[in-house]
Amino acid sequence: MSLNIEDLARENVRALTPYQSARRLGGQGDVWLNANEFPLPVPFELSQQTLNRYPECQPKLVIERYAAYAGLQPENVLASRGADEGIELLMRAFCEPGKDAILFCPPTYGMYSVSAETIGIEYRTVPALDNWQLNLPAIADKLEGVKIVYLCSPNNPTGNLINPDDIRQLLDMTAGKALLVADEAYIEFCPEATLTSWLKDYPHLVVLRTLSKAFALAGLRCGFTLANKPVIDLLLKVIAPYPLATPVADVAAQALSEQGITLMREHVAQLNDNRSWLLTQLAQCACVEQTFASDTNYVLARFTDSPTVFKTLWDQGIILRDQNKNPGLSGCLRISIGTREECERVIAALQALSVEQA
After folding, report:
1. For the chain, how long is the longest CA-to-CA vector?
2. d(Cα 295, Cα 154) in Å, to the nearest integer?
3. Given 184, 192, 281, 288, which is the most exposed site by the fewest CB atoms within 10 A?
4. One domain, residues 252 and 276
């Protein structure tokens, strides 16, 4: 009898739809505006050559520099393979498969559900309100048995910050019952909104960070979990022995140097300026129905005919991210902020399309 390998797999994995990352979706483009990356490479070079030795589990210089950057102590910082690993480590440390649940508020980042499904943890959703803020009464009704609530602020893919007063209410609702995890992957574009200073007041607050966006190091796969020491100690029990490769730690430490942080802030200023320009131009395009304010390195816009817009630009090598399948985002495309020239190419393509459709 021939063995069907798929029958050996866990049932939840057989039923799983994997996260459709920008790279998995493919495309032949030269203007990549679908993954919220920085559009240009940064000038770091490898200096560590001791590749015959295993790296430190938590590289001391990286941890110390990130702690200083975030205004925390090293004991409050855990480094991992992107913030994605942090999302999953928290579930593995705090949630019993088949018993506990997590909760999040779509439309939001897709890895919360994928990680939960992979591990075998129930996930509950409470759709955001029409203004993409939290529906606190509906969340309160679903918190029984929930161990972790994930909040993305600024939120991906909508680009908005979550109201801090609502976050405080949610922290009060979850105290002693669940962790509240604030995913701050895009916080460098609005640093005044970070919740890191709240950690001292809320033992169940966790903040996720990354070097993939503003630090322009998406290919490095380096993220951070910021939390009080008891949470970090539990995560250290379940993390892989060597989560950061030596070259990753090497470049991360450079990026977190004084010069590296200055460079990042210059890049953020450029992208924020390009974002303002792009939003102004989008609002004048006939094929654009609505634009939404953003505190990130991307903008969301609703189009009169988004499938045609998406395909027309795709065929011209301008790759955007389709959001039609996300709750409440019909007709919406997400556009990463590129260089000014890339932004100009997007607008020129949309203007040409508007003329054709007129």
Report:
1. 65
2. 6
3. 192
4. no
